[in-house]
């Protein structure tokens, strides 16, 4: 298992990096990690390119009005994400990764990925 984060200052404090190296020896993707965080890679994970936006649209469809209602709605929505959709997202992520690798990291113009 690898640990990956974007290199934000609060995530790269010396103590934090030491703990990550102890917990994930040789498998930290981060600024000051074993592998550098790739530049301009905000969509590197399925969570970034799919889940957060998808979950937000589901959660706020019911317009929760309290913090407790928001927490409950988040839990309910996460539990309702179909397993086949998660599988499709992972397949799409692998496809994106291969296309990026084949293009040697150049900008991908007009490529549409479907979930």
Automatic annotation (TrEMBL):
Record-level Gene Ontology MF annotations: nucleic acid binding
PANTHER family associated with the record: HTH PSQ-TYPE DOMAIN-CONTAINING PROTEIN, TRANSPOSABLE ELEMENT TC3 TRANSPOSASE-LIKE PROTEIN
Stated name of the protein: Transposase
Lineage top rank: taxon: Eukaryota
InterPro entries: RNaseH_sf
């Amino acid at each position: 298992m690898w640990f990956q984060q974007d290199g934000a200052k609060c995530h790269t404090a010396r103590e934090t990096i030491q703990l990550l190296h102890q917990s994930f020896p040789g498998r930290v993707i981060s600024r000051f990690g074993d592998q550098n965080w790739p530049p301009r890679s905000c969509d590197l994970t399925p969570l970034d390119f799919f889940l957060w936006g998808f979950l937000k649209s589901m959660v706020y469809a019911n317009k929760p009005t309290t913090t407790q209602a928001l927490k409950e709605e988040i839990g309910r929505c996460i539990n309702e994400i179909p397993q086949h959709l998660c599988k499709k997202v992972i397949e799409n992520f692998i496809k994106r990764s291969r296309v990026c690798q084949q293009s040697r990291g150049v900008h991908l113009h007009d490529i549409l990925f479907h979930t």
